[in-house]
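Renewal narrative, Specific Aim 1. Our central claim is that a sequence can be written position by position from structural information alone. The example that follows is taken directly from our test logs and has not been curated for this report. It begins with the structure tokens describing the chain, in the order in which they were read.
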């Protein structure tokens, strides 16, 4: 059974930092592209960042220079370091794993990030 479990969401003040984690089980982690998406009320889910099986990274323009995605294949865990958080970063953040060979997607349940003063 595949499971992606996100953690690390919290209430933080503007300018603060958080690190989200996505722990995967039931998949060959190193053979999956890992991505972080977010969704705010009334908005579509949007891609925040992704990291390939080989380590190549991609970021949404809105988070470039502030967020860093990484992965630890030994721990089957992906991370999203979020710095200089803004009000507009408030959202539920979801982790997605996409199998390199089959393109099958797996999603986590989401973790809430709220940026508020």
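The sequence written for that structure reads:
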């Amino acid at each position: 059974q595949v499971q992606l479990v996100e953690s690390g969401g919290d209430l933080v003040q503007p300018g603060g930092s958080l690190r989200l984690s996505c722990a995967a089980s039931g998949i060959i982690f190193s053979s999956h592209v890992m991505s972080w998406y977010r969704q705010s009320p009334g908005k579509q889910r949007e891609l925040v960042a992704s990291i390939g099986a080989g380590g190549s990274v991609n970021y949404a323009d809105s988070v470039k220079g502030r967020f860093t995605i990484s992965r630890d294949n030994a721990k089957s865990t992906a991370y999203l370091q979020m710095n200089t958080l803004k009000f507009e970063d408030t959202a539920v953040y979801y982790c997605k794993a996409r199998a390199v060979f089959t393109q099958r997607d797996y999603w986590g349940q989401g973790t809430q990030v709220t940026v508020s003063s």
